[in-house]
Write a structure and sequence with these properties.
By secondary structure, the protein is of the alpha/beta class. The chain has four helices and nine strands. The N and C termini lie far apart (44 Å).
Length: 200
Amino acid sequence: MMERWPGMVMIGAAGRNVGKTEYACSLIRAVAPVQPVTGLKVTTVSERNGPCPRGGTGCGVCSSLDGDFCLTEERNTSSNKDTCRMLEAGARQVFWLRVLKDALATGAEALKAALPLDVPIVCESNSLRGVLEPDLFLIIRERGAAEAKQSAANVMAYADQVILFDKTGFDVPPAAVGWAKGVWRLSATPAPHGVNSEQP
């Protein structure tokens, strides 16, 4: 049976540039004023010294992975990296797990040992859902996109909600996701809205 991780909302993405980090930061901003929040980003590496998981030449950080995984804490708020943005949004701590795909379960155990378990966690990952069950698993995909990347397709069946993004907003806005009584919940009947939640 897959291990439960109460207090975690996990946000995956079916493709690139679909607003996943902005969605995560919105959840952090909503909760941080009243409750410490931990941010988490998981990058899954197919093989040691392999290609960048994001495509292209990459930065070399993941390809230089020495062991099965590496867990680091982000302390910089002056960069536009996803982890820096989460910290700037108000997370008390932000961690980045780089892990070989075949060692996800081991990486998850390391997370449980390192992260505070009594605060809400906002996690960016597709693949981690294959070994952990959070309170909520959300997948964001671009409206009209024909296919999902493989890491998302592998866990799509676990999604509690697939959220559509159209470059201007989300069909299920971050305000529909709430933290209460130690649990992340999705509003059962969100108020009607268009994809661009900023528009009346």
